[in-house]
Write a structure and sequence with these properties.
α2 crosses α3 (88-94). The protein is built from three helices and two strands, in the order αβααβ. Helix content is 49%, strand content 7%.
Length: 115
């Protein structure tokens, strides 16, 4: 009789463990299903794609040319074109191919005046 009772008790315990394990498994599946539903229902925030700004056109430097008059120096031309006498260096550097000596420019020479 003791063996029968012991066997019956063991069967009951294993049955309870099995039922509990099945319930846990079922609860886990239900949680996963609810989570999936929530993910489906939750709208994803719209990703706003801003268009890339177009690069601004690069302004081409204005090339101004002048013809040297009799009695003009780079110093005078600089004062007239830039408002300061210090610009003669810019004019000289832009025209090095034509001007060998900045003190010697000649009438009717065509010089480039950089911006």
């Amino acid at each position: 009789m003791k063996k029968f009772t012991l066997t019956l008790m063991l069967i009951s315990i294993f049955s309870l463990l099995f039922i509990t394990a099945c319930k846990d498994k079922k609860a886990t599946k239900e949680k996963a299903a609810k989570t999936a539903e929530i993910k489906k229902e939750t709208p994803k925030p719209a990703v706003k794609v801003e268009p890339k700004p177009e690069p601004e056109p690069v302004a081409k430097p204005v090339v101004k040319k002048i013809i040297v008059k009799e009695g003009e120096w780079l110093y005078n031309i600089s004062r007239r074109e830039y408002g300061t006498s210090q610009g003669w260096i810019k004019i000289y550097n832009a025209n090095k191919a034509l001007i060998k000596d900045p003190d010697l420019i000649f009438p009717n020479q065509e010089l480039v005046i950089p911006e």
